[in-house]
Amino acid sequence: MKLFGMAEDLVRQGLAVTDTFYGAMSELYDTTITETDDIPFYLSLARQHCGTGGRILDIGCGTGRILLQLLRNGYQADGLDISAQMLSLTKAKLQAANLETALYQGDMRTLDSLGLTVKYHLVIIPYASMIYMLEDSDRLAVFRGVYNLLEHGGILAFDFDAGQNEIGISKPWISLQAIDKDQGRSILRIAQMHGISPNLRCIAQITWLNTENQGKIVVSCEEESSISAPHMQELLAQAGFSVTKMAGDYHGQPYSGGELCLITARADH
Question: What is the DSSP secondary structure assignment for residue 254, as one 8-state letter?
């Protein structure tokens, strides 16, 4: 974790501790990540491509934000995530909802090493998880692994950042204010970006956790990537996929530029 800007200053002064956003800070995920715009999009894909009996794999399932919605709607869906902490939270949610499914811990770049024998009709990689694939070799490894898990004509769907960064270190901005009622604390998060290149950036997250008696500052820093839509389409073709749709929002409007791009692609076995 290479720190910069405000995060680096706070740690150097002994005012903050470091962690990973998807590590011990996973407990804050459901409090701080509240987006639901993409859920109807993925449910619609499930209706189109799975019907009755079709299986779905949610890669980067996190705490089950979309996975549980798929299960509650009657689909056979499994989850995969690299974070053991995230999967532990998902498992607890499944138990509370009296739901069962398979959860796998692993890196999306090494799907073949997981020894999965199930074939899927639909694989989704939601919430822009592809931003953590920094090189073309990483993206190709993901696509080829997914290809091997899909039934003939199976579908891969994912969203990603197709924009470009400004080079340099940005001014900090408030990215989140929330109340964690379960833990009796308020949360303030400040973000800062270091644009390393037009397609590579580092995002620092500075999180204040405040209770009546004490406060704590935790910082994390993650590298993220962006990639143009045409180049992503080229990589998919190299892995054996044909792009069937490229949208610019979760309502299916055709992609015409901008940061958000959603791709649906068919595995041409």
Answer: B
The Cα diameter of the chain in Å comes to: 60
Structural domain span for residue 40:
35-163+226-267
At 210-255, the pLDDT tens digits run 877 778 899 999 999 999 999 999 999 999 999 999 999 999 999 9
Higher pLDDT, 150 or 21: 150
Q: Is 60 helix (H, G, I), strand (E, B) or coil?
A: coil
Contacts (Cβ under 8 Å, ≥6 apart) of 110: 141, 145
Q: Are 181 and 37 in contact (CB under 8 A)?
A: no
Reduced 3-state DSSP string for 168-196: EECCCEEEEEEEECCCCEEEEEEEEEEEE
Same domain, 180 and 84: no
Residue 121 has a CB neighbour count (10 Å cut-off) of: 21
Q: Which amino acid is at 26?
A: S
Interatomic CA distance for residues 172 and 160, integer angstroms: 23
| One-letter amino acid for residue 185 of the chain | R
Residues 115 and 214 in one domain: no
Angle between helices 229-238 and 136-149 (to 10 degrees): 50
pTM of the complete model: 0.94
